[in-house]
Amino acid sequence: MNNEIRVIELFAGVGGFRLGLEKANEKLFNIVWGNQWEPSRKAQDAFDCYSRNFSTGIHSNDDITKVSDDTFHNLQPNLLVGGFPCQDYSVARSKSGEQGIQGKKGVLFWDIKRIIENTHPKYVLLENVDRLLKSPSSQRGRDFAVMLATFRDLNYTVEWRVINAADYGLAQRRRRVFIFAYKNGISFEKKQDELTPNQIVFNDGFFAKPFPVEEEPYKDRLATVRLPEDIVKISDEFSFSFHTAGYMKYGEVFTAHTTPVMEEPIPLRNILIDEEAVPEKFFLTEAQIEKFAYLRGPKKIERTSATGHVYNFSEGGMSPVDELDKPGRTMLTSEGSINRSTHIVEVNGKKRFLTPVECERLNGFPDNWTAGMADRMRYFCMGNALVVDLIERMGNRIEEIEQTNDLAEIQMEFSVFG
Predict the structure, then answer these.
(1) Are strands 101-103 and 91-93 parallel, antiparallel or unpaired?
(2) Which domains, ranges and CATH numbers included, belong to the chain?
(3) Apex CA 254: angle with CA 250 and CA 258, to 5°?
(4) Is 86 a catalytic residue?
(5) Which one of 84, 87, 88, 238 is CB 3.0 to 4.6 Å from 234, fit for a cystine?
(6) Residues 6+ away with beta carbon under 8 Å from 40
(7) Which of these is catalytic: 49, 86, 359, 381?
(8) Hey, how many other C-beta atoms are within 10 angstroms of the C-beta on 313?
């Protein structure tokens, strides 16, 4: 196998992608450059955490939009990874005429495009919230279609899958969409080209091997579509219902609603620290208990809109505390605050917040990975983080693909020179 896969990590946060890849094979994945920059913040807590925990490679705390093309070109990555923001990906014809397109300023996906244009990596692995597939609500599927067309125009084939970590044996019900793009012309692409889109999505694709699914789609939900050649037309007119899994090659899209082959999840109680070690500040006061009882209870409230329209806001009730025999709910950046979405556990008759270490465990990070910043920021960083164990499985899959590539190249050399 090749000695290493050179990796660029974008929007790195506290390093979930890197940690997962290094857990898969630290010798294979060489993270040569990692970028984390939080705009409008003087304190760069996530970057500081990243720098504390990793010693090799270049750690960049610069605005990604201001990093030069030459910087990326000189890094020569084989793999680009990142959990990028969900934004508006609409595009328009450039003012100079018909020569190109312009995306909205500040949309960081266009920097991913710029980096790919300057480096042409074999693989791209991205993560986002699953609503990306349906945004914007006024033109369902437009944003994701623009992304797929961008990869098409860059000469990449794309697979995607919405994965709930708890479905595959982990401790958190966290749904995210993962996007894997690979360069046309590499051995893996040629091998995949021998398969049907259905075989790729359900059996033999990038995601189907490490995250198996049932043979049949949920409620027969299958669909195909051809993306318009003109990306501006997609932005202006295209609408489509993308399902939870799919495949795109040369603008031809196959998508299906897959059902995971479930693995027993880790229950919440298994990630809790020793109760005697929980500091007093994490236990709820009587006033907080009362507030949470209201927030998590059913309610119907009369409200008046800005235009004077009176309407009823209603909200269903949820359990006063989180069930310890089930995996945790999706952790948000507001975790640890007085908020309906915050986890509340009850142990030995006492109610409390999750500690920052327990939140790290929900995402598969080592204990005290985020130590050194305020608790509020530790919660925030874990609310933004991905589940490390999922990336480890994807890293193992990339290693398997690399072995296939190398074998194909050896066989090709043998046929030529043998």
Answers:
(1) antiparallel
(2) 5-263 (3.40.50.150), 268-384 (3.90.120.10)
(3) 145
(4) yes
(5) 238
(6) none
(7) 86
(8) 9
